[in-house]
Each structure stands twice: as C-alpha cells, then as structure tokens.
Request: fold
Amino acid sequence: MELKIFKNPEEIGEACGKLYADYINSNPRCVLGLATGATPLPTYKCLSRMCGEGKVSFKDVSTFNLDEYCDIPKTHKNSFYTFMCENLFSKTDINMDNVDFLDGNADPQEESERYAKAILDKGGIDIQLLGIGRNGHIAFNEPADSFSDEAYKVKLTDSTIEANSIYFDDIPMPRYAVTMGIGSIMRAKKIILIATGKSKAGAVLDMTEGPVTPRCPASILQQHSDAVIFLDEDAASLLR
Ligand code: GLP
Reply:
C-alpha cells in the first residue's frame, strides 16, 4: 500500500487525473472501475479538461461503476449513473456502449452474475478508483462480520440515508443499493483510493495502520499488490 500525500484535493485531482490520462494513452482499450461522491470530482474535472484539450481520448475505454441506488429510475437526477454522466461521461468522447452500471432495479443475484461476467469478458478491471466512507466503507460495503465477494444488494445505513436524504425532494430516499463486493474490487489489477478532509482521517488511520478486518472494509487494501492511496494533509493528519 503506497501513500501519496498532497496539500489539498485540487492537487490530488491534477495528479490522479494525469496518472489516468497517461495510463489511458498507453492502454487506449483499458477497463476502468469508477466511483461517485465528492472525492473523485477534482480527478474527473482534470480528465474532462484534458479530454477537451485533446490530451486523452476515452473512445475505446470501458467503465464499470462501483454502486447504484435501488428503486429509482436509472436516469433519476440523483442516480449514480446521472452523477457520472454529468461529471465525466458527457465531458469526454467515451462510447456509452462501453459504460456499464449495476442495475438497482434488476434481480440482485442475476445482476451480480451478469456484472461479474461482463467484467471478466472485458479482461477484468485495470484500475479501480475508490473513495472511503467515514466508517471505512468502500463502495457500499459497510463494516461487517466478513468480507463480501461479488456484487450484492445492501441495506443503506441510517447515516448514509441521513447524509443523502436532502437531495431527494421528489421521491423517497432509497433504502437499498447494489454494490460491487470486496472480492470484485480486490480483483482489479491496480487500486487508487482517494481520501480528503479531516472527517476521513480516522478511517485512513484504521485502513493503513490498523488490522485487516471487515469492521474497516478499506483495511483489506493492505493485502492488494498495487494499491495507491492519495491523501490530502487533513486526511493524513492522524497517521503516525
Ligand atoms: C458513499 C459511496 C462511496 C463513497 C463514499 C464517500 O457511501 N457509496 O462510494 O466513496 O460515500 O463519499 P464522498 O467521496 O462524497 O466523501
């Protein structure tokens, strides 16, 4: 697990965006695992700008996202699909036929099997981008008694529901989501996790210096052969 520490989220966005651009230019048909939330936004902003400047092309890139809400239309304004379209896909030359998402309205077991096969058919994920929750969750893998494997349907925690309810002014906030499991995430060839802000410092400490335990799902990354952690000074502030 390699740690890279930067002054602020914007510096991380530029560094991480350029890392992705270099990788895509060397591997135009690469397969990217993508994340939502506030943390990846500076990276997506950098990649969108570089694509607009002709410095990188997504035309042969394939993508798989980590998670999606259940019981809302795929194109609802608060779906993770819409988040990705608005914050990255619409600002690049990606072929939307190469964009895959977990379907929160499909049968969970069938969808999990479909997703796992789709990822395998593409040769696996080359680089998986992750954020981290304050409690050390990755994707929607919350603290648990064991590490999950393939994608599955998960009941959202009260804190997640509370944090996101404000955005659902037209329909009830979903209570469930579908998420890639820890096993599917760990099978990525490379993992990049970004954490910024003081609110993530405790999770970062547990992830990097604590035991490997499903009580802190992100701690599993200690066992990945190529995991790079991008931190700003606030998120790294508790590291010894
Ligand atoms: C959500 C998402 C995760 C994300 C995390 C942190 O639970 N399911 O994928 O990493 O929250 O979000 P943020 O980056 O907005 O802090």
Q: What stands out?
A: Helices lie at 9-26, 41-52, 80-87, 108-121, 158-165, 182-186, 201-209.
